[in-house]
Design the sequence.
């Protein structure tokens, strides 16, 4: 009934009916779940990381924990998950089955190996099974297999380049993505190593090594297994700003295709990932939390956004924000002041407290009328007040001749 | 009516609090319960800290957690209401007191310093005064002829305020704060005897206002507060099946609810001169009465109680709302030729309370209330007064505020807080 825009894209030669993919994670670890995800409308799946190991990995539960306020418990989701316990024998069959059942969807698989032989065996088998794309996990927070188990492969420039080369040798024309970690000294060097190794793209980035919490009464870490715990891989909204920065740094410095992953929770986040250089966006915590049905608003939101912006394809978003991201010293210093819209102000006084104790003591408080006012001489325009206003009544204003320019408005 | 937040509900509600600066809720609370701060302590999981804050501000916090008319105080000015709905502040402090008892806290009270204050009347004002004085090492002797605790213990129905809460909180004054209670009725200052450095009078209003119409002396005409005490004590009222309650305040609504609760097959109707909005009753009480099935005959002025040897009903005249008075409350006017008859077999008068004629040595207002200055000091030096005996019928939290304030004035009178 309503007019739709085309949100399909071409990703490394693969047709995606939207830029939204299910990442290599629990939602793609069972065949039925992958099928339901695709039926629900996701553009593709990357099946959870498999290997050639004879003994399946030993998963330990409870593996999940989270943090956040009671009204939004999962701001950050942590897991001590490992790769799939499904052997390549099974995954290979799934790829065949899914490719047959969903010829227009992207069917990809994620792999991890311990040796050149492992990696190449995995690649060849999946390629033969008909996988559209192969993603290599160089960044499981629980560590990679092989030369330095326990360490993430992508934390070594040399290993990254070497293993990428092995994989690409085997994959030949099948596109290869290397999934990296933001937990490195220089993300650009890692991305360059991936490119030198010959990969087609980078997945930026994996969950981030973290410690979800400690029970302050028993001193047991979260998640707790008989009183003990391990570092978790952190995902969810909490890591979105880290992912954005990771994608942006790679996109600005290395000419390589990027698949965004890590912290996107809605279509707006996805547009942001694309604006800083991602060609598409992978999701895991969102469907884990609210289910595969979340694809519907992702697509609808993106469609309306494109129409509103006058874009004809999601690809027009890619990299749009990059030219605006600079080093702090390169920025032009604005003369800006806080401007409070007293009609919107509800008089909570939180901006006053924030400015008085955390800003520049530039807001005064009228306790009779319960209204703040800005002392323009003292205000430096730091925008702390704007962050804490519960009703978005504060803007940062610059006077340019007769025009008034506002900074950093939230929409 | 029981609304009890569990941990999850309390945390989600606490997260809604904006943590206002110079918080209007805290200022609107007569006892100045530090609302944003105790809510922040709920949010951080520091319930003992929250309990300290609310109890320091209001020694009757458990009672107020059940029956305080928050819509008149903290909630009426909650900033959050401008976004969606006000914070459920009373339920949040009830959550605190439900989960942390005063006995769960450790006390560090100073030794008695030799000063002693007589407190006449062991209601919320007297208890608050005694507790506040104890913080500074001043000893109190509370004179209370009835059960300690005042109206919360003696009159508020146990369905609205569980007895163990009202009684338990009152008794803390003995158990935790070492006050002494004397079972003596005091009607003038001389009866107190020697040995007191100051006096606080908080007797409340003990008499009921009488309605001056024909028929009030018929056998089936009752007064509200006596009935409330009867019901609270567990005795039967013996009223009939069709009861009219004359009045429009808390007591009228409360007694109507209590009578309906006593016998649900009984029809109970509140007959009131003004309209719903002019009712001087708390939101919770009105809602509860309506839920029980109490009916209201608004804009009806009682003219005469009919009956020869027993009540047969009342004649009322229709009223209409007039212009607002100086306090903004709508007045009422009589509608000519509008008299009608409502059959009742029992009538309850609940038109208000007044002070009894005690403490002749203290200056009174024209209404018979004790006159005080802004420090709550009476016409006699060293004698202070607060609560309903000064304000007229008011709320528990206002009485608490008076008790605290009087204690501060007494401390000042006794020579600074470090006496």
Sequence:
């Amino acid at each position: 009934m309503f007019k739709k825009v085309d949100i399909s894209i071409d990703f490394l030669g693969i047709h995606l009916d939207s830029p939204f993919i299910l990442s290599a994670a629990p939602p793609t670890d069972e065949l039925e779940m992958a099928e339901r995800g695709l039926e629900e409308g996701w553009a593709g799946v990357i099946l959870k990381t498999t290997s050639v190991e004879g003994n399946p990995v030993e998963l330990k539960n409870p593996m999940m924990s989270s943090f956040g306020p009671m009204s939004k418990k999962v701001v950050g989701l942590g897991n001590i998950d490992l790769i799939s316990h499904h052997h390549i024998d099974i995954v290979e069959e799934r790829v065949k089955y899914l490719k047959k059942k969903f010829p227009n969807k992207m069917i990809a698989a994620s792999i991890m190996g311990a040796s050149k032989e492992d990696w190449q065996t995995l690649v060849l088998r999946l390629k033969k099974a008909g996988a559209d794309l192969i993603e290599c996990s160089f960044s499981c927070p629980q560590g990679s297999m092989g030369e330095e188990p326990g360490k993430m492969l992508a934390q070594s420039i040399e290993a990254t380049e070497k293993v990428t080369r092995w994989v690409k040798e085997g994959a030949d024309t099948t596109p290869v993505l290397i999934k990296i970690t933001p937990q490195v000294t220089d993300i650009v060097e890692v991305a360059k190593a991936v490119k030198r190794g010959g990969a087609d793209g980078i997945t930026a980035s994996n969950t981030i090594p973290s410690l979800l919490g400690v029970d302050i009464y028993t001193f047991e870490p979260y998640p707790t297994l008989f009183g003990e715990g391990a570092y978790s891989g952190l995902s969810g909204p909490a890591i979105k700003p880290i992912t954005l920065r990771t994608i942006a740094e790679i996109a600005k410095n290395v000419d390589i295709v990027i698949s965004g992953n890590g912290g996107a929770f809605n279509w707006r986040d996805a547009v942001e990932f694309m604006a800083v250089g991602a060609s598409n966006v992978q999701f895991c915590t969102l469907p884990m939390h609210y289910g595969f049905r979340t694809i519907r608003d992702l697509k609808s939101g993106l469609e309306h956004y494109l129409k509103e912006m006058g874009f004809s394809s999601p690809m027009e978003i890619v990299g749009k924000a990059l030219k605006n991201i600079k080093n702090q010293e390169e920025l032009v210093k604005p003369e800006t002041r806080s401007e409070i819209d007293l009609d919107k102000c509800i008089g909570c006084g939180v901006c006053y407290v924030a400015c008085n104790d955390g800003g520049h003591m530039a807001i005064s408080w009228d306790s009779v009328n319960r209204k703040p006012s800005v002392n323009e001489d003292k205000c430096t325009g730091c925008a702390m007040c704007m962050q804490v206003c519960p009703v978005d009544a504060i803007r940062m204003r610059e006077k340019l001749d007769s025009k008034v320019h506002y900074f950093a408005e939230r929409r | 009516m029981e609304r009890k937040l569990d941990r999850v509900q309390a945390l989600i509600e606490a997260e809604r609090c904006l943590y206002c600066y110079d918080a209007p809720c805290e200022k609107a609370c007569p006892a100045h319960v530090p609302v944003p701060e105790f809510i922040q302590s709920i949010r951080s999981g520091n319930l003992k800290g929250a309990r300290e804050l609310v109890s320091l501000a209001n020694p009757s916090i458990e009672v107020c957690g059940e029956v305080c008319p928050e819509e008149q105080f903290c909630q009426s000015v909650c900033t959050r209401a401008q976004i969606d709905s006000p914070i459920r502040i009373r339920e949040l402090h009830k959550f605190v007191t439900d989960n942390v008892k005063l006995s769960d806290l450790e006390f560090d009270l100073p030794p008695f310093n030799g000063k002693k204050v007589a407190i006449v009347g062991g209601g919320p004002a007297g208890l608050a005064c005694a507790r506040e004085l104890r913080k500074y090492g001043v000893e109190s002797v509370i004179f209370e002829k009835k059960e300690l605790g005042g109206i919360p213990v003696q009159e508020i129905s146990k369905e609205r305020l569980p007895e163990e809460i009202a009684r338990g909180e009152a008794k803390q004054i003995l158990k935790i704060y070492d006050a002494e209670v004397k079972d003596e009725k005091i009607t003038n200052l001389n009866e107190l005897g020697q040995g007191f450095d100051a006096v606080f009078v908080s007797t409340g209003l003990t008499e009921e206002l009488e309605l001056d119409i024909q028929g009030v002396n018929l056998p089936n005409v009752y007064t509200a507060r006596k009935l409330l005490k009867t019901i609270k004590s567990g005795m039967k009222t013996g009223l009939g099946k069709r009861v009219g309650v004359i009045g429009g305040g808390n007591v009228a609504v409360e007694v109507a609810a209590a009578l309906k609760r006593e016998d649900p097959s009984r029809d109970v109707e509140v007959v009131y001169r003004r309209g719903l909005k002019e009712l001087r009753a708390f939101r919770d009480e009105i809602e509860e009465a309506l839920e029980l099935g109490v009916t209201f005959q608004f804009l009806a002025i009682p003219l005469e109680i009919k009956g020869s040897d027993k009540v047969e009903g009342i004649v009322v005249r229709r009223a209409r709302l007039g212009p607002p008075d100086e306090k903004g409350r709508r007045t009422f006017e009589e509608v000519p030729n509008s008299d009608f008859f409502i059959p009742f077999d029992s009538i309850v008068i609940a038109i208000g309370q007044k002070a009894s004629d005690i403490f002749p040595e203290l200056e009174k207002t024209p209404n018979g209330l004790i006159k005080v200055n802004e420090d709550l000091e009476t016409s006699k030096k060293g004698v202070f007064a607060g609560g309903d005996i000064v304000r007229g019928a008011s709320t528990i939290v206002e009485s608490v505020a008076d008790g605290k304030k009087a204690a501060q004035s007494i401390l000042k009178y006794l020579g600074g807080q470090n006496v």
Summary: Residues 396-413 of chain B form the longest helix (18 residues). Residues 102 and 172 of chain B are 8 Å apart (CA to CA). The first strand of chain B starts at residue 116 and ends at 120.
